[in-house]
Amino acid sequence: MSDTSQEHRFPCDNCGSDMEFDPGGDQLVCPHCGNTSAMSEGGSSTIRELDFEAAVRGSLAEAEMEETRVSQCPNCAAQVEFDANIHATECPFCATPVVTDTGPNRHIKPKGVLPFVLDERTARKAMTDWLGKRWFAPNGLQAYAKKGRKLDGIYVPYWTYDADTKTTYTGERGVDYQVSKTVVRDGKKQTVMVTKTRWHPIAGRVARDFDDVLVLASTSLPRPYTDALAPWDLSQLSPYSPEYLAGFRAEAYTVALDDGFGEARVTMDNRITRDIKFDIGGDRQRIHTAKTKVSNVTFKHVLLPVWMAAYKYRGETYRFVVNGQTGAVRGQRPYSAMKIAIAVVIGLLVAAAIGYGMAQQ
């Protein structure tokens, strides 16, 4: 078992400072002297899936488990790995002061990591550009965000699930046809065409293999935030190496593996429903029963890159997240009461001017 706070430190051969992973580059770089170092070639070259049933039973091999030390936020309950040299910090998710070292956290090791592509400066520009397009945002917050502290680079935990499914179903296929009908409109009889449907009973079977159904393994951020960061290009996943985490932080998963699979099943069932309707065919479909057999379920724990900022402005906390791969931004929509009042006044003046002009005509 390893203490990740130590495992993620890579001293510079030139000055001895801790090196950091270079977003967008396959190397480590020293922030003090600029020295660079190539990523090691050790470890596995493939990302191996793990058996879901074995993990739920708690019978995974010991080599698949690790223990790290985390700090838990008393406000949003986020669990983030910390550097042993730091004794107090703010929660990157909500800016709440946090005392570090909550204790050891035993969990399933990450199998894959999606490295940061955007550096902090690029992510900050994406966030400030996003804020700049929100006219109702307070000017003070926009200025504060531009001059505020740097964004935190966080690797957020996700589960991915693979499964084979076979579903038997019963239902009905609807075929539309047209009939003429006489109706009375404005005192006159008219003939119109009306659509009706003939229903035919049907039964069948569909099969689908699912690969990398992605489920967020954290509850620290509201779902609309993380959903807005999609899509992720999981074809760029790399086998996990602690070098990718050098200079960044990692959040521990708080959604249990079996709970995550429950969410994955919702995604799978929606896809299966579409498959059944396609298989039924016709113009309309009714599904009466659907029984799905799921087999060969595997999973992996992966880390995805997110730049994050939590700003306290005039007693309110504003949170923003940036996809570290694509630059997609999501955040709370702050509103300035003064700007809204000005917009209302302008709207009333414009409406009054239009009304006056029409009256003159």
Give a verbal description of the structure.
There is one protein chain. With 361 residues, the chain is an alpha+beta fold. It has one domain (4-172, 201-344). The chain is 24% helix and 40% strand. The chain has seven helices and 17 strands. The strands form four sheets. Strands 4, 10, 11, 12, 13, 14, 15, 16 and 17 form a nine-stranded mixed beta sheet that branches. It has a three-stranded antiparallel beta sheet with strand order 1-2-3, with no helix packed on it. A hairpin with a 6-residue loop joins strand 5 (65-72) and strand 6. It is extended. Residues 1-6 and 339-345 have low confidence and may be disordered.
Provide a brief overview of the structure.
24% of the residues lie in helices and 40% in strands. By secondary structure, it is α+β, with helices and mostly antiparallel strands.
- Following the backbone from N to C, one meets helices and strands in this order, namely HEEEEHEEEEEEHHEEHEEHEEEH
Instruction: Report the β-strand fraction as a percent range.
Output: 35-45%
Number of domains: 1
Structural class: alpha+beta
* End-to-end distance: 83 Å
Sheet with most strands = 9 strands, mixed
| Poorly predicted parts | 1-6, 339-345
Helix content: 10-25%
Total of helices: 7
Question: Outline, from the CA principal axes?
Answer: extended
The count of DSSP E runs of length 2 or more, i.e. the number of strands, is: 17
Q: What integer is the average pLDDT? A: 84
Radius of gyration: 28 Å
